[in-house]
Amino acid sequence: MKNSKKLIAVLAVIAIIAAVFAACTASNNGDEDTTAPTSEAAALSTVTEGKLTMATNAAFPPYEFIEGDKIVGIDAEVAQAIADKLGLELEIVDTEFDSIIPGVQSGKFDMGMAGMTVTDERLQTVNFSDTYAKGVQVIIVKEDSTIASVDDINENTKIGCQVATTGSIYAQDDYGTDAVQEFSKGADAVQALVAGKVDCVIIDNEPAKAFVAENEGLKILETTYVEEDYAICFNKESTELQEKVNAALKELIADGTVEKIVNKYIPAE
């Protein structure tokens, strides 16, 4: 009788061990909970699941501009490369430049890319990625203008700028708000210069080249106004997305992808 009880006990232990082994084997064979995230993209929280929504202002060539019915440019291609790295579909939304940061803040967009410079003022409301490109603010004038350098600009100069851009911010700091007239698009500021409504336009060097090429009688001063770095902005709550995008951006910079994209639109001189 004692031997029978011992045998039953041994058999019970063997049965327990077999059950545990079977459970482990099933787990290793992929029978785990299929509702768990299976990719980095599934784990990321974005405005629209599976999409990376980028806000831009598509009037800033060569960083972003409209070609046919598509938004193209440096920022569009860099954003696409980042989305590909993260396994997300890229959606680009064209909006007014001064609506980008409020839209990112409110959660309407995942991030903003529009040749945007990191400033202390902007850092109070959004976070930024690492720098991916460098910009230079320059001054456009008429060919017969008396303005020959930055030194010729003062508080009595009528300066045209795109609203909420660093060119406008710096000009207002240097010459006062009364000296600066803001426009919704850089092209509108340039047309005001052509019409004689402003004396000069302060804007990024690359779109400045395009505007001067399109409008006879204008030139870019040889002296630069200010140099700056461009980065991607994020909602301050979206720290995980910011980290993932930044990690992807670092890889794209390291492997030469970003440089290749920039050189495509801004050939080395």
The structure class reads: alpha/beta
Percent helix range: 40-55%
Strand content: 15-25%
Rg calculated over all Cα atoms: 28 Å
Structure description:
- This protein has about 270 residues and is α/β, with parallel strands linked by helices.
- About 40% of the residues lie in helices and about 20% in strands.
- It contains 10 helices and 14 strands.
- It has helices spanning about 1-30, 40-45, 75-85, 95-105, 120-125, 165-175, 185-195, 205-215, 240-255, 255-265, and strands at about 50-55, 60, 65, 70, 90-95, 110, 125-130, 135-140, 160, 180-185, 200-205, 220, 225-230, 235.
- The strands form 3 sheets. Strands 8, 9, 10, 11, 12 and 13 form a 6-stranded mixed sheet that branches.
- Helix 3 crosses helix 9 and helix 3 (about 75-85) runs antiparallel to helix 10 (about 255-265).
- The termini are far apart.
Helices and strands in order, then pairings?
Elements: H1 2-28, H2 40-43, E1 51-56, E2 59-60, E3 64-67, E4 70-72, H3 74-86, E5 89-94, H4 97-106, E6 111-112, H5 120-123, E7 126-128, E8 133-142, E9 159-162, H6 166-175, E10 180-183, H7 186-194, E11 200-204, H8 205-214, E12 218-220, E13 226-230, E14 233-235, H9 239-254, H10 257-265
Parallel strand pairs: 1-5, 1-6, 9-10, 9-11
Antiparallel strand pairs: 2-3, 3-4, 6-14, 7-14, 8-11, 8-12, 8-13
Could you provide a short overview of the structure?
The chain is an alpha/beta fold. It contains 10 helices and 14 strands. α3 crosses α9 and α3 packs antiparallel against α10 (about 255-265).
